[in-house]
Design goal:
Oligomer: single chain
CATH superfamily: SCP2 sterol-binding domain
Distance between the termini: 12 Å
Number of domains: 1
Structural class: alpha+beta
Shape: globular
CATH architecture: 2-Layer Sandwich
Helix content: 40-55%
Order of helices and strands: HHEEEEHHEHH
Radius of gyration: 13 Å
Length: about 110
């Protein structure tokens, strides 16, 4: 998984994670907006308000949480090379919205 791109995380990793853990979708029942900057960046939505969850490129009005970080830091976070709490404290990870929902993000990313 170390050579993943952010796009691959959203297109394959997160959907397979949600399919294998349907209880995560129902327990969170909210949405995440990811705004990734730099090479390989873009905007993606992880919408857990629908059965099975939905992941797509683009934006969603009024997500529960908006996550802003560089694409490379995001990939490092997913791969376990970057600690989410440390990234937040160092300013590498910016969270806008419901902090308690943001803390559940690890259940989605794996």
């Amino acid at each position: 998984m170390s050579d993943l791109t952010a796009k691959e995380v959203f297109e394959t990793h997160i959907p397979s994670r949600l399919a294998s853990k349907p209880d995560v979708v129902t327990s969170i029942n909210n949405s995440y907006q990811f705004d990734l900057t730099g090479d390989g960046g873009g905007k993606w939505v992880v919408d857990l308000t629908e059965p099975g969850g939905k992941v797509f490129a683009g934006e969603k009005a009024d997500p529960g949480v908006t996550v802003t970080m560089t694409a490379s830091d995001f990939v490092d976070l997913v791969n376990g090379k970057l600690n989410g709490q440390m990234a937040f404290l160092q300013g590498k990870l910016k969270i806008k919205g419901d902090m308690s929902l943001a803390l559940k993000l690890q259940q989605v990313l794996g």
